[in-house]
Amino acid sequence: MDRAVFDRMAVQEDVHWWFAARRQILAAVIFRLVKLPKNARILEAGCGTGGNLGMLEGMGQVRAFELDPQARQRAVSKSGVAVLEGALPDDVPFQSERFDLIGLFDVLEHIENDEASLATLVTRLAPGGRMVVTVPAFPWLWSRHDERHHHFRRYTRAHLAKVAEAAGMRMEHGFYFNTALFPVAVIGRAIKSLLRLDRADDTMPAPQVNSALRAIFAAERHLVGRMKLPVGLSLCAVLTAK
Question: Are strands 169-177 and 234-241 parallel, antiparallel or unpaired?
Fold first, then answer.
């Protein structure tokens, strides 16, 4: 990602509505659909500046890796977790460890070879382990946002299931989320494209707006594992080895 994007992430991810609500949804996914064992071993692949590590520490023993050195340093300072240098698909640390849960949260779209990356990570799963993956949804939603964040692609559920299958995994659960705000985002991106506006859409909104957006987005945690929504700005999948 651009350095400016990493810098904004480091400052905002504790309070920005998207990061905060996504953590609540991820916690619900893990609790309801993964059901970790006691003293679970957890790996976050590509942890960025560490915004998810505190949430994961409440669930087990956490390890993490990150390629960007400044992001890695911030993640260590923020969480105290030992974050090692690493990159997908060919430079993943913790070769001798196996994990009950691997989190890949909005990372796969940044990697050119997504199939090889999943194939590498599946070798780090313990027997019965699960991988939770989130990615941006629907190629037709491609925008300047994706270019600014150095994405290679956006996914449909069928596409992600196909990549997982080729990597030796199967999709146990797959669902779209960030659905309530889907129409607003589609209209907003269409207007930006029409008017050729290039303003970043991940800046911090006013406090009241931020709180409202967080509440709307986070409410979807109650739907995890109970119903599938037909569309959403993001896609979540729970994968396991075949």
Answer: antiparallel
